[in-house]
TrEMBL record:
This is BrxA/BrxB family bacilliredoxin. It comes from the Bacteria. Gene3D superfamilies: 6.10.250.2150, Glutaredoxin. Pfam families: Disulph_isomer (PF06491). NCBIfam families: YphP_YqiW.
Length: 144
């Protein structure tokens, strides 16, 4: 019995996608979906660049989940999946200049402009609680 690589990866990453979509975060899987969502997101928007790496599993996704329990949260919640939805991720990253591509990463935008960004190197050596604290401070600053 042979399984295609694409099918294998779909099955493998689905739980990683579900961790974020269960929180009410909308997946943007194509460049067109990114173009429809990000420029039109009035108010604040959180964009999580998801990844299969350990720091996404141990720190980024749990940190985002904890931050979204805060009393102040962004108006819109989006995610793209690096390495899986490559074109959508590339399109989303166009909004994160001047930051280089980074997976995982977390962007906070306000009226289509980047106002806060957490790069991979700021995720991999910190706890989920530290990431959540960073995000909630940004939510308090930009989402009120």
């Amino acid at each position: 019995m042979s399984m295609s690589f694409e099918r294998y990866m779909l099955d493998m990453v689905q739980p990683m996608r579900d961790e974020l979509t269960r929180l009410g975060i909308q997946e943007l899987r194509t460049p067109e979906e990114v173009e429809q969502a990000l420029p039109e997101a009035k108010g604040t928007a959180l964009v999580v660049v998801n990844s299969v790496c350990g720091c996404a599993a141990g720190q980024a996704r749990p940190g985002v989940a904890a931050a979204l329990e805060h009393d102040v949260v962004p108006d819109h919640l989006f995610t793209v999946f690096a390495g899986q939805d490559k074109e959508a991720t590339a399109k989303a990253r166009e909004y994160f200049a001047p930051y280089p591509p980074s997976s995982p990463s977390i962007a906070l935008m306000k009226d289509g402009e980047l106002v806060h960004f957490i790069e991979r190197h700021q995720i991999e050596n910190r706890s989920a609680q530290e990431i959540a604290a960073d995000l909630t401070a940004a939510f308090d600053r930009h989402c009120r």
